[in-house]
Amino acid sequence: MKIIEPYYVIEDEIDAKKIMLTIERAGRTCYKSEGRIGDGTAEKFIASIIKRGHESVLEHEKITVRFICDRGVTHEIVRHRIASYSQESTRYCNYSNDKFGSELTFIKPCFWNDDDENYRLWLKAMQGIEDVYNSMIANGAKPEEARSVLPNSLKTEIVVTMNMREWRHYFRLRTSPAAHPQIREISCKLLKEFKEKLPVIFGDIESNF
């Protein structure tokens, strides 16, 4: 059994200048003001359209992120409709073979310390699940059958592609204090990096870190 912290990987090389120029060119088509494009105009133009709520223009660019998190978190991520998803399949992945180190990997819950009794109970439950899963596979069960005992805490990978407008929507919901602690844990870190790399597009979203 392996316990890891959740993390993410930004799959795209983010070229802020190129992204903003694409958005500016698309947006200026609405006003036929492409002739006004110049050094520094993208920042002002995009800030203006965001302030006016004209966010459809942001849909012309996208970013792809790989989340390594528990399956419970992915159930919330996929509720965002305007996105593309590719997720690790418990139907086809046989976690008892060498490819996965013959063990299950679980995401450590962020709401318990190591010395918390609830955390110790969680560890005991995860170990029991791994034992049962491996026993079922050894007894001839297919991965798609044995997965019926797998919990929300199972580590999974999901590749998520959203346009800039949907990422803004995602962050407004998933970094809110009202969001589940585990999705906030990973989303707040991601928003911080997005704000650093694309401050014009994400800088106005309140940081709830």
Describe what you observe in this structure:
The longest helix is centred in the middle third of the chain and has 22 residues. The strands form 2 sheets. The chain has a 4-stranded antiparallel beta sheet. A two-stranded parallel ribbon has the order 1-5. Helix 1 packs across helix 2. The protein has a single domain, classed as Gyrase A, domain 2. The protein is α+β, with helices and mostly antiparallel strands.
Q: How many beta-strand elements?
A: 6
- Which strands sit side by side, in order, in the main sheet? 2-3-6-4
Helical fraction: 40-55%
CATH domain class? Alpha Beta
Helix and strand string, N-terminal first? EEHHEHEEHHEHHH
* Overall spatial form: elongated
Spans with pLDDT under 50 lasting ≥5 residues? none
Mean pLDDT across every amino acid position: 96
Distance between the termini: 31 Å
- CATH topology tier name: Gyrase A, domain 2
What is the level-2 CATH architecture name? Answer: 2-Layer Sandwich
Largest sheet: 4 strands, antiparallel
**Beta strand %:** 15-25%
Indicate how many domains the architecture comprises: 1
Category from helices, strands and their pairing: alpha+beta
Rg over CA atoms, rounded to whole Å, is: 21 Å
Number of helices: 8
Write a compact overview of the structure shown.
By secondary structure, the protein is of the alpha+beta class.
